[in-house]
Amino acid sequence: MFGLSEVFRVPPGVVQATVGDLQTHFGRLLIGQEITHPERLWQHLWDALMHTNRRGWEIIILGALDVAIWDIYGQMLKQPVWRLLGGAQRGPFQSTVDAAVEVVPYCTLVSDVWGGEQIFSQQVARAETLASLGYRAFKVEPMMSAPKDVVELARRCRQAIGDELTLMVDVGYLFNDVPAAVRVCRELEEQNIYFFETPFPVDTPEPYAKLAAKTSIPLAMGEHGVTRWEFLDMMDRGGVTVVQPYMTTCGGLTEAKRIVELAAPRGAQVCPGNWSTQILGAASVHLAAYSPVTPFIEFAPAEVFESPLRRELQNAGFPVRNGAILLPETPGIGYHLPAEIVEKFRI
Ligand SMILES: [Mg+2]
User: In sequence order, which residues have a C-beta less than 8 Å from that of residue 334 and are 6 or more positions away?
Assistant: First the structure.
């Protein structure tokens, strides 16, 4: 029995040096351990970081290990992970009468180029393609753009997808000053924007709080948020009401579940980030299935991003039908990596 996970943006040599064998920091702590509830093993690894490396690559690797441990734990108990997290927790008044619990991906729309007319035409075309395939929510990414272009991209995308579908905006840490961001949000409000992502640098709750007080658009952040403590800070001091833990970077599924428990009583939502592949995306599906405050998970659809590896990994994952993913019933995380894919893309 083995558990599958994905480490993203950590050099392979660092991963090897951290978990490779009995001589490594995590290898020494995990090899030979009985697999019991993942939270126990999470704590075992976390405690060992106290005097060494409490953030950065090591917590991403801890998070990836945690996902793999959940995968094994679910297989041992023959249950999908979302059920072991606590089941699909929805109160009788929080969903419409007939609504089945399903997980809805939102499509992140990046460009091959940035700036000028090309960013508009490319992202809008991708939104149109994906909307025609049944996807329901879209996030435009006016990175490195002038304020007027942020507004223009959102306007064109809204016009293209119509009023019914969901539109988000991610400006990728674009602003240094609050007034500029306030002016942009005022104009974006006309486009019915579901959330406005990362206007300011990651470690600065104060400008987030000042902007949150002046706009009706929910502020989102968290792709680089590490441990529940950073999320707590951004919710309580930053006024952030959409948090976006990455299933590895935040510290794993165990830590993401704790973030859900912190967000719910604050009236905040949890929309997990994932712009890597659907191996890690599968872990987000389980969190969303469990979480009563997760309307969307991030998804970078292979249909519009040319990559043979991305496409084959997505095809092997949970199917998206009518823009939604049904709760998986396979034990563990339930992602089965076909041997042919490993063979074909091995480097
Ligand atoms: Mg982003």
Answer: 74, 80, 81, 282, 318, 328
Distance 173 CA to ligand 1 centre (A): 8
**CA 198 / ligand 1 centre spacing (Å):** 7
b/e burial code for range 169-178 (CB count within 10 A of at least 16 → b):
bbbebbbeeb
| pTM of the entire predicted model | 0.96
pLDDT in tens, 222-239: 999 999 999 999 999 999
| Cα 341 from Cα 312, distance rounded (Å) | 7
CA of 344 to the centre of ligand 1 (A): 30
Q: Compute the 3-state secondary structure of the chain and give helix, strand, coil in percent, each to the nearest 5.
A: 45, 10, 45
Which tens digit of pLDDT belongs to each residue from 258-271?
999 999 999 999 99
pLDDT of res. 114:
85
The stretches in the chain having pLDDT less than 50 are: none
Torsion of CA 64, 70, 72, 73, to 10 degrees: 160
Q: Can you give the residue ranges of every domain in the chain?
A: 12-84, 87-335+341-345
The Å distance, Cα 92 to ligand 1 centre, comes to: 33
What is the distance in A from the centroid of ligand 1 to the CA of 224? 9
**C-alpha 34 to ligand 1 mean position (Å):** 37
The three-class DSSP label of residue 81 is helix
CATH (residue range 87-335+341-345): 3.20.20.120
CA of 145 relative to ligand 1 center, distance in Å: 14
Query: What was the pLDDT predicted at 146?
Result: 94
